[in-house]
Specification:
alpha+beta; 8-stranded mixed sheet; 5-stranded antiparallel sheet; 28 strands; 26% strand; globular
């Protein structure tokens, strides 16, 4: 899907179309007041206050019709420059525009754009005339707090998109429909994977039984891989004192993303936003020799980050998340080898999940930004050079991103391109020379002297929440056998005659660790088979007289026509192989 914001021509066209939307709304709702109407990756939106009026889908059609009428008028779009005083007078009846103007310098030259009877504040640029905006579509509407602050008034946001020809618009709308079908929030509801409740709180998802199965399988998968690589897993508290994060430096750099301080007795606590400080103290719990290193500490840790209310989205963007986190405490001479092992673990994991469209981003500091990053030029130069050397040695393609590093060191981000939408970051690996100093960590080196270890922060899945959302959208909810909440659905042809055999097969499969359901409802066979397909269950077994009399099954795969007869023992071997090969 094309990124409209990054396409220069489409950016201008969509920015202009946002004004066309506002003009049409001002005709239909003369009392309307407007906040902002920016271009976004997939089109544009405009936030507006319509008073007591609340938009419906029918209203979007009416607005579209009025937009087409305004476009046909072929009014020139004229840029005007005015003073702050003139701007305040021009928009004196619109408190939202007044707020924007009051935040500008007194000496500022303010630009606005006029098209017929409508004038709006804007930096521009815009297309020449309204007639150039012929191929547009209003996609949806929603509520949006003024300035993104839940304490402010709820405005109405209308989303749209505009192209230069009908073919591109139609193609884009097809992609929008595809995105809706892949939306993990839709799949999550249909398959009962997770839910949300305002009573619990925004950005605090509740994993339902089916979702808990998927998450547990993911945990088991990565736990076994980490165990084989010598990781030691721990459990640490979901809270920490404010002083813990002052010591680590996170308070100064990330306090706007940390939940407010809770005072208990004489101490100040916060919900844990990250796990590194806790793991520093786990390492510090005992003295280490150079022979002990590397020490690899892992945890499936629940963290909390204060995300803006408008930024949250299903499992993809949450305030409560579980990280697949680990910290490797290494000697300087072990950095290259351990970093290489992390990259290889990422590559191995992506192969198992069938990820092919991804890229490595080496995130570096901006040397000019002395406030955002720990100020130690030698440390940064050495760290960045080490990561670059390892990537070159492994031979993976990567690109460098200045200014994207963590405050304590450079990092490797893996950007995965999903089936729909922009790239997402799943895996990260970060080099850190700073936190071991802040927590006064050490080990005894080969000369019997105290030395400071280097820490490698890494997360293979990132968070289980985002990773699960990504998988849902990649697979459209068609889970591989090993992850599917229900792996096998058994349907007896006759619910009375064949039910006992169906339950016998279920019991045998369950004893082998499979997740099995028996659908022996008094419904027609065709209805139950269609429902099994609708639920996207990987394997459906149909059992009748022949199967019951020969200890066999009839196998139907999701998405495939026809059935395959098998002996029970053959079925077990087929299922075992499919799970081992992760398909």
């Amino acid at each position: 899907m094309i990124n409209i914001k990054e396409n220069a021509e489409l950016n201008i066209l969509n920015h202009s179309c946002a004004h066309l939307l506002a003009q049409a709304v001002s005709h239909l709702y003369p009392h309307a007041k407007f906040w902002v109407g920016p271009v976004i990756d997939d089109g544009f939106y405009y936030d507006m206050d319509l008073g007591e009026d609340s938009l419906t889908e029918e209203d979007l059609s009416k607005i579209e019709k009025e937009m087409k009428k305004c476009a046909k008028d072929n009014k020139r779009i004229v840029r005007k420059e005015i003073s702050k005083v003139e701007a305040l007078e021009m928009f004196k009846d619109d408190e939202y525009k007044i707020d924007l103007i009051n935040n500008m310098e007194d000496s500022a030259v303010i630009s606005c754009y006029a098209q017929g009877d409508f004038t709006d504040l804007c930096r521009g640029p815009h297309v020449e005339t309204t007639k150039e905006m012929k191929y547009f579509k209003l996609v949806k509407h929603s509520g949006a707090y003024w300035k993104g602050d839940a304490k402010n008034k709820m405005l109405q946001r209308v989303y749209g998109v505009c192209f230069y020809n009908e073919e591109d618009l139609n193609q884009y709308m097809k992609e929008i429909e595809e995105a809706k079908e892949r939306d993990h929030r839709k799949i999550g509801k249909e398959q009962e994977i997770f839910m949300s409740s305002q009573l619990v709180g925004a950005g605090m998802p509740l994993w339902l039984p089916n979702g808990a199965i998927i998450r547990k399988q993911l945990e088991n998968y990565i736990y076994q891989k980490e165990q084989a690589l010598g990781y030691q897993h721990v459990y640490t508290p979901c809270v920490g004192t404010k002083q813990l994060y002052v010591t680590s430096g996170h308070w100064d750099h990330y306090k706007e993303n940390i939940f407010p301080v809770m005072k208990v007795d004489e101490e100040e606590f916060v919900l844990r936003p990250m796990n590194c400080p806790h793991h520093m103290l786990v390492y510090k719990n005992k003295m280490h020799s150079y022979r002990d290193l590397p020490v690899r500490i892992g945890e499936f840790a629940t963290d909390f980050r204060y995300e803006a209310s408008g930024a949250m989205k299903g499992l993809e963007r949450v305030r409560c998340m579980c990280q697949n986190d680990a910290h490797l405490f290494v000697r300087p001479d072990q950095i290259g080898e351990e970093f290489k092992k992390v990259v290889n673990l990422i590559l191995e994991t992506y192969k198992d999940f069938g990820f092919k469209n991804y890229s490595f981003r080496l995130s570096l500091r901006d040397k000019e930004d002395k406030e955002k990053y720990f100020d130690d030029d030698e440390m940064w130069d050495n760290a960045e050079a080490k990561l670059r050397d390892v990537l070159n040695e492994i031979g993976v393609d990567y690109y460098e991103a200045k200014g994207e590093a963590a405050f304590y060191g450079p990092k490797l981000d893996v950007e995965v391109k999903p089936a729909i939408g922009p790239e997402v970051t799943l895996s990260t690996c970060q080099l850190d020379f700073l936190l071991p100093r802040r927590f006064e960590l050490n080990y005894i080196d080969s000369n019997g002297e105290k030395a400071v270890p280097v820490v490698i922060h890494r997360a293979i899945f990132g968070t289980f929440d985002r990773f699960t959302a990504f998988l849902m959208e990649e697979t459209k909810g068609i889970w591989p056998l090993w992850l599917s909440p229900v792996q096998v659905n058994i349907i007896p042809v006759n619910s009375e005659i064949h039910a006992d055999y169906a339950h016998d097969i279920k019991d045998r499969l369950v004893s082998l660790g499979y997740r099995v359901n028996v659908d022996d409802r008094n419904e027609k066979l065709g209805y139950r088979m269609r429902e099994s397909q609708m639920k996207k269950i990987p394997v459906t077994l149909v059992l009748g007289d022949n199967e019951m009399n020969s200890d066999s099954v009839n196998v139907r795969r999701y998405g495939k026509e026809g059935q395959t007869p098998m002996k029970y023992d053959e079925l077990v071997e087929v299922l075992k192989k499919q799970i081992e090969e992760k398909y």
